[in-house]
Each structure stands twice: as structure tokens, then as C-alpha cells.
Design goal:
The protein contains 9 helices and 8 strands. The protein has 292 residues and is an alpha+beta fold. It has a 5-stranded antiparallel β-sheet.
């Protein structure tokens, strides 16, 4: 947690330095426009409009950057003694990106001598049609901001949603990106995250391991013997899981096989221990299946 906060503070110091450079650039731009603007306007109107458009971009970016710096600084001070989640910073960065795009669009209108209000009023019907067609994207963007500004899910959490399971690598305005156990990146739409049941293993002190498998139907198959064999195999790992949580039961009896489920709870959320326990469980089941 502290290392994450240190990384954010280092990044914010770098951004504050860049902000000072932007101020100097804006002052130089204002001075250039003040002295050269009246001279070039009658002869080179496009150059004059370009200077005005550049002023809009730099001034808008300065205002947005100043607001961002104040918000992040306030957030870091507020969270000095409480839990810090990188989602807030991530959400602010996404909003800043959207606002910067809007500023660039306004500067393009200034460059081509287009009045923003008149332009917006003239494309109202087109804008409504575009909004209707892209409502799913807009919904995903809103849901993405909701996820970013909440503390229910954050970067680095291990989650499970339906058949998807993995570590959250990034949260964008459209998707939550997780890395599964095979290190494949899975992109889940934000609207699906908010409308589905999500298990956040990182917020639990225990973690369940559940495995279903089939064994050949045979008179030699004894569930009690199978359970004792598995428990004996995991005895060296007693400190990593709760013995009372170990469950072995028959899910269904088919014509040629019995479907069996094994479940146990790990103490803590160490991924390395989880992988080790799973591998031991699989290996022992393979060995017992071959013996039967």
C-alpha cells in the first residue's frame, strides 16, 4: 500500500514539474500573440487563428491539469492514514483525457473560425442519432467511471466472475482487463461487471479451491478412503488451509463414472501457495485414479 502511494507521489511530482513548464510555454505564447498577433492578423489570418487555437489548447490543458493536481493532492492527504486505492487516480486520469479531447475539438473550431454554440445547435439531430447508436459505449464509459471511483474493485485484485477468473491489470472506460491463470488478457465489459455477481478474493482472508473430476465407477472406489488419502497427502501443508473446510462429496453417479467434487479453504491469498496446492491436488487425484 505504501509503495503504491510512493509511486503515485513520485508521478505527481513529475506532473507538477511539467505543469510549471506548461505555464512558461503559455506565458511565452501569450507574449508572442500579444506582439505578433496584430501584425500578422491582416496579412496571415490563418496564422493568427492558429495562435488563438494554440492558446485555447494550452490554457484549457493548464486549467484541467491544475484541477487534477489539487484533487490528487487532497486525496493523498486524506488517505495518509487510511487505505489507498489507485482507482481514484485512475478515474481522474480518464476524466482528464476526455476533457483534453474536448479542448482539442474546441481549438479546432477556433482554428477554422467556427462558433462552438452555433455548431452544436446545427448538429443537434446528428448528435442525438450518434448518441442513440453509441449508447452501449456511453453506458460502458459511465460504468467504468463508477468502478474507478469505487473501492470495491481495484488494480491488482484477484476476482472471479462466472467463468472468468484472474488479476485485474487495468480498468478502462470500456473494459476491465484481467490476466487469468494462463496469463491471457481477458477484457470484460464494464456493464457486465456491474450487472453480474463478482467475487473479490483479495478482500477475503480465506480463499476457496474447488475441483471437480470423474473417477471410474468401481467397487474399489471408497469416498472415505479417497478423502483420507487426500488429507494425508496435504498434511505437510496444514498451515496453509483449514482442515475443517475440506469437503469431498459425490456430485452425481453416472453409468461408468462418478463425478466428485473436492473443496477446501486456504488461509491467506498467496497465489504461489494456491498454485502449489492445486498442483498437489491434481497430481494426487491422477495417482489415485490410476491405482483404481
Amino acid at each position: 500500500m505504501n509503495s503504491r502511494k510512493d509511486q503515485i507521489e513520485v508521478s505527481e511530482r513529475r506532473r507538477r514539474t511539467i505543469f510549471v513548464v506548461k505555464i512558461l510555454v503559455y506565458v511565452a505564447l501569450l507574449a508572442t500573440s500579444e506582439y505578433l498577433g496584430p501584425l500578422v492578423a491582416p496579412y496571415f489570418p490563418k496564422v493568427y487563428r492558429f495562435l488563438n487555437a494554440l492558446e485555447v489548447v494550452v490554457a484549457g490543458n493548464l486549467i484541467i491539469s491544475l484541477g487534477r493536481i489539487i484533487l490528487i493532492r487532497f486525496y493523498l492527504r486524506k488517505k495518509r492514514r487510511t487505505g489507498l486505492h489507485g482507482n481514484f487516480v485512475l478515474g481522474i486520469n480518464r476524466i482528464v483525457s476526455i476533457l483534453n479531447v474536448i479542448i482539442v475539438l474546441l481549438s479546432i473550431m477556433v482554428l477554422f473560425d467556427i462558433q462552438p454554440l452555433e455548431f452544436l445547435s446545427s448538429i443537434t439531430i446528428v448528435a442525438a442519432a450518434i448518441a442513440l447508436l453509441s449508447k452501449d459505449y456511453i453506458t460502458n464509459m459511465i460504468n467504468g467511471l463508477i468502478i474507478m471511483f469505487s473501492d470495491q474493485l481495484t488494480l491488482g485484485d484477484h476476482i472471479k466472475m462466472g467463468e472468468f477468473k484472474g488479476k485485474i491489470q487495468d480498468i478502462t472506460l470500456l473494459n476491465v482487463i484481467i490476466a487469468n491463470e494462463d496469463d491471457d488478457l481477458v477484457m470484460i465489459p464494464n456493464s457486465l461487471i456491474l450487472s453480474s455477481n463478482v467475487i473479490n478474493h483479495s478482500r477475503q482472508n480465506v480463499k476457496k479451491i474447488s475441483l471437480e473430476f470423474e473417477m471410474k465407477l468401481s467397487e474399489r472406489l471408497n469416498l472415505d478412503v479417497l478423502e483420507n488419502a487426500l488429507l494425508g497427502h496435504f498434511k505437510p501443508q496444514d498451515k496453509h488451509f483449514s482442515k475443517n473446510s475440506f469437503i469431498l462429496k459425490a456430485m452425481s453417479i453416472q453409468k461408468d463414472a462418478v463425478k466428485i467434487k473436492v473443496q477446501l479453504q486456504l488461509v491467506g491469498g498467496d497465489r504461489a501457495v494456491e498454485k502449489k496446492i492445486k498442483r498437489m491436488l491434481n497430481q494426487k487425484i491422477i495417482q489415485l485414479s490410476s491405482e483404481l
